[in-house]
Amino acid sequence: MSDFDFLIGSWNIANRKLTKLLAGSDEWEEFPSTAVVRPMFGGAANIEEITFPTRGSSGLTLRLFDVERQEWSLYWGSSVTGTLFPPVVGRFADGRGEFYGDDTHEGTPIRARFIWSEITENSARWEQAFSADGEKTWETNWIMQFTRG
Fold first, then answer.
1. Region for 18 from its dihedrals, namely left if φ exceeds 0, alpha if ψ lies in -120 to 50, beta otherwise
2. Is the pLDDT of residue 140 over 90?
3. What is the model's pTM?
4. Which of 15, 50, 53, 71 keeps 20 to 30 A from 35, CA to CA?
5. Which one-letter DSSP state was computed for residue 2?
6. For residue 146, what are the contacts with CB-CB under 8 A and spacing of at least 6?
7. φ/ψ bin of 81: left (φ > 0), alpha (ψ from -120 to 50), beta (otherwise)
8. What pLDDT score does 79 carry?
9. pLDDT tens across 54-103, in order?
10. Phi and psi at residue 56, in whole multiples of 5°?
């Protein structure tokens, strides 16, 4: 239940995101963001507010720990759409968190994967990947390098 305790507090984030997803693109855009993560439910949940100042948008992540299943559900909401995306679900093992869920991208069903890795007291790495072929191949399309703010 304390898996995400490392994330509590303020962060500066360097983002790299593919300009076109699931299109074979190798063109990346880079942009900054900042985040504040607050604990809830005694560590069994947290809320992250992330701001993308150069994009004029923000996002919200709600992370909830399912005590019975011993896994996390991560929900992402965007100020651009005003909607909450379907959750990715998973857990941490050996300092690495892997989370999977079903979603769509431009009308195409996809499998989404979030990975948390390289976690220290003052840094962490998050990456998002999509699979449109039933997890045979993955396209990493967004990478965030967190440093303590």
1. beta
2. yes
3. 0.95
4. 71
5. -
6. 7, 11, 12, 13, 35, 123, 124, 125, 126
7. alpha
8. 97
9. 999 999 999 999 999 999 999 999 999 999 999 999 999 999 999 999 99
10. 65, 30
